[in-house]
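Design job #97: recover the sequence.
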């Protein structure tokens, strides 16, 4: 049997040769050791992604992104009991009309027959695992959301939050006397090291001068002393796990690599690095040093042996719409970068206020994931792949030129005259090439990973820099640094051109319009959106923004006022396109993980969904 929905978490059931996984549509699944799908749960009335997963001797315990807490029978995966995320709270501590905040936190644990997990109001819920009776709802030790709970040690527990803080204490007594900052961003993973009686954690952001540049794993003693860092990556580290003997520790994240540490002695060392695999790693289940399972953000689950060789994988066909780029002279024709290549689509208004979407062509070049694509006036296009390719193809998909760059290409731009293209890489180099033949015209050393680039209309070259979280502006014909915008606190994701040549940048803090003459932020948008803001589009006087929160927010461009918030997207939003029809009616397209493209009619900035299309 095939998996139809993207998986989010995977765990080994205690005492059984069974892997349990959760997905984006509130279902749980069981696999055998060879990743054959054995059982899938039925659906319930809840439909939000399950990020928090805990497997006990008899139950599968879950929490979805809106705080709904669930219990399933481990033997059959039959749903047993659920607390609605809106209702499971201490209402006396809420603001008037407060509703749950969507959060992808994975914090849930069961100890001594009790379940502990944060709700959607940042309160800690305590349930009886058997009866599911609510025993307590208490304040969290953190002022923000808890992301992970480690209760493997019977006496000393550790909780981590989304701002890099670690709280050490005891869940049962609700006392957490030790608080340490171990990162500047989300600490996704905390594990107890029973061999050396300490905790290990992941880092997303890094500390001090390493912020957004060097991240890794850390160790800390149970009394909060002895903090130590080991750098692995410049990106998010998503998980950390031990083998049963705690001799080996496994860590992985967005660099696509699995790092294996030898923990035999207190002075651990990195013994092996596997990968990079084809995409980012988000979770893992470790059976032994020679048998472990990694979950990619694509939804693929792969079993690897100790040499890093693939043994088998679950049957799943991942899809994603990474970008929707309009043709420069025909905005009804959009080019979609996908996990398989480039898909051309035409959209326009249909009868009875519908939206017509036609898939015109599908080009599979063999480059794998095409993260960005820029159409040229003759219908050809340049693109970048996850594998490091920069290429140009004709309107029929024939490759005209191709070359490799160092690192992973993250951003792509084409000059106003379409003669030059710019590529930003996480290796830290900005590459400029001739669009006609791919000949390298210039390279600029950014000095740190760069995720986005763009040309101004007068030819200046703009790029993000992870170091100090900056947007840098270089001259059109030299390496002169003309100015820097440095009003940001997290890694920047994309640079986007608006309908009237405005330039925006996105990141965890929001979507910002830039003034690249005064090198300042002109406007900021992002209220009510959670997690990283990935992309957006300006249309008909409104800005539409989305990202990792499964949301799309609408803001009035003139004053930033929030007009609407959609929270029913099928998965992460990655791609945006919009146009105003000849009759004056605007249409919005939003694409993302799973290969969906949601089509909306817009009414005074409020999207009304009329169609959910999937790329073939």
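Job complete. Output follows.
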């Amino acid at each position: 049997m095939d998996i139809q929905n993207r998986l989010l978490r995977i765990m080994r059931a205690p005492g059984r040769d069974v892997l349990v996984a959760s997905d984006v549509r509130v279902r749980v699944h069981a696999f055998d050791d060879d990743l054959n799908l054995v059982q899938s749960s039925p659906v319930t009335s809840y439909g939000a992604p399950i990020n928090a997963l805990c497997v006990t001797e008899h139950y599968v315990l879950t929490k979805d992104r809106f705080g709904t807490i669930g219990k399933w029978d481990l033997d059959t995966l039959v749903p047993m009991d659920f607390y609605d995320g809106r209702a499971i709270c201490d209402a006396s501590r809420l603001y008037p009309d407060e509703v749950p905040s969507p959060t992808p936190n994975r914090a849930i644990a069961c100890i001594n027959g009790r379940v502990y997990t944060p709700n959607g109001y940042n309160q800690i819920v305590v349930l009886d695992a058997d009866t599911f009776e609510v025993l307590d709802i208490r304040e969290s030790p953190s002022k923000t959301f808890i992301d992970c709970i480690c209760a493997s040690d019977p006496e000393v527990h550790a909780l981590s939050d989304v701002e890099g803080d670690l709280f050490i204490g005891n869940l049962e007594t609700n006392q957490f006397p030790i608080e340490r900052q171990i990162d500047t961003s989300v600490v996704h993973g905390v594990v107890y090291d029973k061999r050396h009686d300490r905790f290990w954690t992941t880092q997303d952001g890094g500390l001090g001068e390493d912020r957004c540049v060097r991240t890794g794993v850390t160790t800390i003693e149970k009394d909060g002393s002895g903090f130590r860092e080991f750098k692995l990556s410049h990106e998010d580290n998503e998980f950390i796990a031990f083998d049963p003997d705690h001799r080996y520790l496994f860590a992985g994240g967005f660099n696509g690599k699995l790092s294996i540490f030898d923990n035999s002695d207190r002075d651990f060392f990195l013994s092996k690095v596997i990968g990079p695999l084809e995409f980012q790693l988000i979770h893992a289940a470790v059976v032994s040093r020679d048998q472990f399972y990694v979950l990619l953000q694509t939804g693929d689950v792969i079993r690897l042996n100790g040499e890093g060789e693939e043994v088998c994988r679950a049957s799943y066909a991942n899809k994603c719409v990474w970008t929707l780029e309009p043709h420069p002279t025909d905005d009804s024709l959009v080019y979609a970068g996908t996990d398989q290549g480039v898909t051309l689509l035409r959209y326009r208004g249909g009868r009875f206020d519908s939206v017509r979407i036609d898939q015109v062509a599908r080009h599979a070049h063999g480059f794998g994931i095409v993260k960005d694509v820029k159409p040229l006036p003759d219908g050809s296009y340049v693109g970048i792949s996850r594998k490091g390719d920069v290429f140009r193809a004709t309107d029929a998909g024939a490759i005209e030129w191709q070359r490799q760059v160092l690192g992973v290409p993250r951003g792509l731009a084409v000059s106003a005259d379409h003669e030059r293209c710019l590529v930003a890489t996480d290796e830290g180099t900005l590459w400029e090439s001739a669009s006609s033949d791919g000949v390298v015209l210039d390279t600029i050393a950014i000095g740190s990973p760069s995720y986005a680039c763009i040309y101004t209309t007068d030819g200046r070259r703009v790029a993000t820099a992870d170091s100090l979280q900056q947007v840098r502006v270089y001259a059109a014909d030299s390496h002169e640094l003309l100015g820097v915008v440095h009003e940001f606190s997290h890694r920047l994701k994309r640079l986007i051109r608006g309908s009237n040549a405005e330039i925006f940048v996105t990141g965890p803090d929001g979507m910002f319009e830039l003034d690249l003459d005064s090198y300042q932020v002109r406007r900021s948008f992002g209220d009510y959106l959670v997690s990283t803001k990935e992309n957006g589009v300006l249309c008909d006087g409104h800005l539409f923004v989305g990202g990792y929160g499964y949301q799309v927010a609408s803001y009035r461009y003139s004053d930033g006022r929030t007009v609407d918030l959609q929270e029913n997207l099928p998965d992460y939003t990655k791609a945006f396109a919009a146009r105003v029809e000849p009759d004056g009616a605007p249409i919005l397209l939003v694409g993302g993980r799973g290969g969906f493209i949601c089509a909306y009619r817009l009414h005074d900035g409020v999207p009304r969904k009329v169609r959910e299309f999937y790329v073939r």
